[in-house]
Design goal:
Length: 334
């Protein structure tokens, strides 16, 4: 707890370009949480280097992502928005927690198996211990809640196991985090394969809407979106392409699927896809305009980076010093 509020932690990697799925599924909903929680939102650039990165490109993407957090509506005065790499406590706590995590637990992580298959030429130790760094991210701020998707739920369970193991040895050191259960973010699927999630790493450029796509590109991608031959705009699993487009339309217009289906009754797929595309354009334009404005204000973004790193560092150090004392490290001479 900080100032009577529960603590919430989340973050995104500074790799690739954020998609409409990242925005509607997570970022848009983060904006509503700052009144209820003390929120820490990290640009998790330490995680990014488990896969080889171009250094200049990584720095650029990290700054763009931090700027996008603010452009999407996250107030840096209410939310701690910072670079993971600027708070050394993440790496320091990660090493300690590595010593309280079992090889068998890490061997069971499905994401390690998936990423190893994709990057067979670079199966590094960081990729293997990635979930321990994620545990450190969360436990460093004594997070009460963590918004996670299905693909990260296994990592949160490991975080809980590590925290409980450490607490059983040393007493009440870590808050054991719970998954955030709130308003569910829209789960946005690929426009070309609606059975898999929209991804910023998809090799098909027509599969994903990127946050910085211009209006013409957005409309063109929706016109090419996979549907079916049923010629019926219905919200059902048997029509995954149409269901996905309805989910996107509803998320952009705050409507229920039932309302959207009634609205497009008797309409063809062409009109429907155009309407979805136009809705997305109208939602993303304010974010794009604000991003463009903030990107020109170097002094402001620099001040956010410094002030928020200092704030994150303060709370991280409180936890880290407590942990270091518990495990027996010598006290620092001040």
């Amino acid at each position: 707890m900080i100032d009577g509020k529960k603590v919430l932690f989340s973050g995104m990697q500074a790799t690739g370009n954020l998609t409409l799925g990242n925005y509607l599924g997570a970022l848009k909903n983060w904006v509503t949480l700052s009144d209820e929680y003390e929120c820490f939102y990290s640009v998790v650039d330490l995680h990014s280097i488990t896969v080889r990165q171009d250094p200049a490109e990584l720095r650029k993407r990290a700054r763009n992502l931090l700027t996008l957090y603010i452009a999407a509506g996250l107030d840096p005065k209410k939310n701690c928005i910072y670079y993971q790499s600027h708070v050394s406590g993440h790496a320091e706590l990660s090493w300690i927690l590595n010593c309280y995590t079992y090889m068998g637990e890490l061997n069971r992580m499905t994401q390690f198996k998936d990423k190893s298959a994709k990057h067979a030429d670079n199966i590094n130790a960081g990729l293997f211990t990635y979930p321990v760094l994620m545990a450190a991210d969360i436990l460093l701020f004594q997070a009460d809640v963590v918004p996670v998707g299905k693909d990260q739920l296994q990592h949160l369970e490991l975080t809980r196991d590590i925290a409980q193991r450490f607490n059983s040895i040393y007493g009440d050191v870590f808050t054991v985090p719970e998954p955030y259960i709130g308003k569910a973010g829209a789960k946005i699927m690929s426009l070309q394969d609606p059975l898999k999630k929209m991804s910023k790493s998809d090799e098909n450029p027509n599969a994903s809407i990127l946050l910085m796509d211009d209006p013409d590109t957005i409309i063109r991608k929706f016109k090419r979106a996979v549907t079916d031959s049923e010629a019926c705009i219905c919200y059902r699993d048997e029509q995954p392409g149409i269901k996905n487009l309805l989910d996107i339309y509803c998320a952009c217009n705050n409507k229920t699927p039932e309302e959207a289906v009634r609205e497009f009754e008797g309409k063809g797929y062409g009109d429907f896809k155009l309407a979805v595309g136009e809705s997305v354009v109208s939602v993303l334009k304010p974010v794009q305009d604000e991003f463009a404005r903030l990107s020109k204000d170097k002094a402001f973004i620099d001040s956010v980076i410094k002030e928020n790193a200092d704030k994150a560092g303060y709370y991280a150090t409180k936890t880290l010093r407590k942990v270091q004392k518990k495990v027996g490290f010598p006290e620092r001479i001040r």
